[in-house]
Amino acid sequence: MATAEAWQRAEIPGPTKAFVIPKPEVLVAMIKRAKHPIIVAGHRVVQVSEGEPYIDTIIRIAKAANVPVVATAHIVGEFVKRGFQPAAWMPAVDITARLQDSSWTGLDGKGQYDLAIFTGIQYYMEWLLFSGLKHFGTHLKTVSLDRFYQPQASWSFPNLTLKDWNAYLVNIANQLEAK
Length: 179
Prior knowledge:
Blueprint: E1 19-20, H1 24-33, E2 37-41, H2 54-65, E3 69-71, H3 76-81, E4 88-89, H4 92-100, E5 115-119, H5 123-136, E6 141-144, E7 155-156, H6 162-178
Parallel strand pairs: 1-7, 2-3, 2-5, 3-4, 5-6, 6-7
Helix pairs in contact: 1-6, 2-6, 4-5
């Protein structure tokens, strides 16, 4: 059974915690409804899940939903090897600071993002990035696509097994591709 308890026990998220994404269809609807979404992908997207490599699933989601991807760390090379060009490369802290900035018009100059999907970043670092966005980027909904519940985000998966997490992600990609 999936739980909605923070994976990192030493930190207290405060009174506002992430809503749990109970099934993949909820996230698909959020992505389709968003006017200006973005995906921030960290170095852990190269890990292999049960079946399809995680980075390939993220690429499928980004292409199907036409969502730009910001590659953090050294991961941009992995995307390029797969024939996918991220919209930008920058450190996770920098993209988070820009997402908080109300005067930033985005990578494409079309205004602020309304949905930021983070994935592949170490749990404890993501916790801090989401905390900053929760308090200083109030115009933005945030989603953690990682397999452990992230209470600092607006929305998060519950704690999932590797098999269930992979099934959720593949289901999301399949639904977005089906349009």
